[in-house]
Automatic annotation (TrEMBL), chain A:
InterPro entries: Diverse_substr_monoxygenases, Luciferase-like_dom, Luciferase-like_sf, NTA_MOA. Keywords: Flavoprotein, FMN, Monooxygenase, Oxidoreductase. It comes from the Bacteria. Residues 16-404 form the Luciferase-like domain. Its EC number is 1.14.-.-. This is NtaA/DmoA family FMN-dependent monooxygenase. GO terms for molecular function: monooxygenase activity. Belongs to the NtaA/SnaA/DszA monooxygenase family.
TrEMBL record, chain B:
It comes from Arthrobacter methylotrophus. Gene3D superfamilies: Luciferase-like domain. Keywords: Flavoprotein, FMN, Monooxygenase, Oxidoreductase. This is LLM class flavin-dependent oxidoreductase. The lineage of its organism: Bacteria, Bacillati, Actinomycetota, Actinomycetes, Micrococcales. The keyword ATP-binding does not apply. Residues 41-291 form the Luciferase-like domain. It comes from the Bacteria. Pfam families: Bac_luciferase (PF00296).
Amino acid sequence: MTQHNRAKFRPSGKIQFGIFFQGVNSGTIWKAPESGSQTDFESFRRIAQTAERGLFAAFFLGEGLRLREHLGRPHALDVAGRPDAQTMLAALASVTSNIGLVATQNTTYNDPADLAHRLASLDVLSGGRAAWNVVTTDNAWTGANFRRGGYLDHADRYLHAEAFVETAKGIWDSWEDGAVSSSVSADSWAVPSHARSVHHSGQHYSVDVTPRLPRSAQYRPVLFQAGDSPEGRDFAARQADVIFSAHPKFDDAVEFRADIVSRSLAAGRAANDVQIMPASEFILAASDEEAREKKEWVRSLQIGPQQAVAYLEQFWGRELSAYDPDGPLPEIDPVVEETCETRGSGFHGAKARQLAEQWRAEAKEKGLSIRQFVSSRTARVDSTFTGSYAAVADTLAEYARVGAVDGFNISPWLIPTGLDDIVNHLVPELQERGVYPTEYVGSTLRENLGLATPVRAERNFRLTRSH
Amino acid sequence: MSGTPGADRQGFLALELDGDGSHPAAWRKARHAPDELLNGSRIRSTVLAAESAGFHVATFADGPVGAGSDVVGRVNALQRAAFAGPVTGSIVLVPEVDTVYTEPFHISTQLASLDYVSGGRAGWLVAASGSAEEAAAVGRSFVEGNALAQEAAASVEVSRRLWDSWEDDAVIGDVATGRYLDVDKLHYVDFETPADFVGAGYSVKGPSIIPRPLQGQLPVVAQASLLPSSVDAVLVSTPTTSLLIEELAEVRARRTVVGGGPAVVAELDVVLDSRGQSASTRLAELEAHTPWASSRARFVGTAAELVDFLADVLAVADGVRLHPAVLDVELEELAQLVLPELRRRGALKPVAQGGTFRELLGLGRPTSRYASPAAAVVGTGN
């Protein structure tokens, strides 16, 4: 392939689906009778097998490192409590055969040797279907559950993450191809120089690892990344195979694609090397009108009156239970300067007073009550596709035609049946339009996503860098 | 455990499933190619073979490989156990998990998750690595001697508290009040390593991020020397078979001073006659390749002799963990000749479909330590 071609982005003309089983959030409905257990294995099995029936590329799990809090106590209103991602995915590996298994794992509170080995284990157990969604945290609040505590400066988190990823790649690449013998009559189980040890010496840690596993059927786990800051995007352009983006709206998606293509090229990679799968929600029915009615129902169950007030309390830092959820936003000011991390890192650091003023003005202008306002902010407005199966299929076909995204990562609002209508009705519509796979291309995640075999990392061995 | 030593006692059998067997040269006698060892289908077939043979428990070794072993690769033990969870129905899954160079919060969550994916059939074989290699891999100072037991005790205590940190009925899903959780039933564990802790001290806040495991508390299994307290089963190892029964009786006596006490599990390496080859010939062939430096008692003989020996052992122990020299070979003999005969003699507990590890050990399901008002204030220190 010429350099010119590698520099030009080519739409694949296809879209793929992933499913994101969030476990802890306000979007998963637990109040409906159809809602099942959020913890029992059967819920995970049911939804993973449904996704596989719908030829989904990947099944995602989030990672929990500290239980969310509300005004100094565990948050009571939303779904909470989730299993360890890789343990659950290892179990799902034995009851699925093609779907990718993606674990969100934090670089700050894991050790590279341990995490890389567990991911490699998941990869060989699943026959090459493992992936790692790389996330970072820097707060001491999360660190209170770990030996290291909150030791990482905010500015350092991507430097640390990148050194971590480089070390992991070194571990995954350390065994020679064909290192393990193919016959019991061989002289030894593996060739004597089967693996190289991996060294990393940096600001946050120094490690010296003897890797324990050969490469998997897909060479090494696929890397997903979700950071959206300029540093996060550059990190993804250098390291990731797929970005789990926050830009599902068409124009934003096209713009984000262009930005990632240029960052990928600047990082010395080809224009198509980094795929994009935005987070999304689907509310579908036989007709557009029914879908709109369904959306009202979904929203009413996602954000009840208590959730609406509690959401504002997170930002105000004070109790607001005296306020009517169907009335205007509170006139009193927040008692905190910055919203804290207890709601999760996504909320960390917003200027509370400034936000409150902004929100009051916005709600007043649009005539929204507390409940309506919170619903509009939290209900994935930007990421929701609502409509008939046919209409939504037409919309997605347009994304595929221009290559705005490579797929969507769907957060179901109902567990465990939340993918049923997508798999039963939307997928066939998309297949008819020729924009969705009609079978799994291969047995590994890398094959199914159409990713190239990675080049073996060489520079990681005897790696000594400042980070 | 229940009853007194005697012929009417029934015990359980555990099988160690690592690699191709416990002998370092086992891969040479395996019924598959070496490069077919480290994958999901091998784990599935071995654990299913153990389950259908009637073993009560499967254990999965972990940690660095290489020292004294020909096989230098290993899949993470906890993930092997998790992979086996949904495809099995009765066998208890007990991975070895290190307590020294791993994060207690992660371990606690992983083990609780294993309990969910196995329907309450999970346990924890506590390891405290004495390996400089593992210390280097995570960039920590090498821990050895008495400090290992202290690290293990701290890690087990953190896990136990985190498992209790959600009371059983913390998830209420109360539509009227909009509350998914009853936060009065969630508890900070506020663990801190004791003042005399030799390694780098640490603290863990809690609560856990996963509801209480199905069993409430996973049974904790450890070598008798490692964890003096807070175990549900102790592994007893002697250098020879002749010392084993005597030692088991002693451990049992020491451990049951105040009623109950943990289950006592004998460790035994096993080499059996197979397909017209005597056990001693088979062992000699393996030893000609690589010596087997095991600290466990070793039984080398016929299936019938092993039945007699195990019947004697089970008269004083609650269970036996067998370490087959070559998994593919020994498991076949055990399944066909040893377990059926022990069962016929009434020496084995029945295998319970969907039963929990606690039930196998004769343990009830404990209430969370934080559940009663009196216990709820016990939150800090050690």
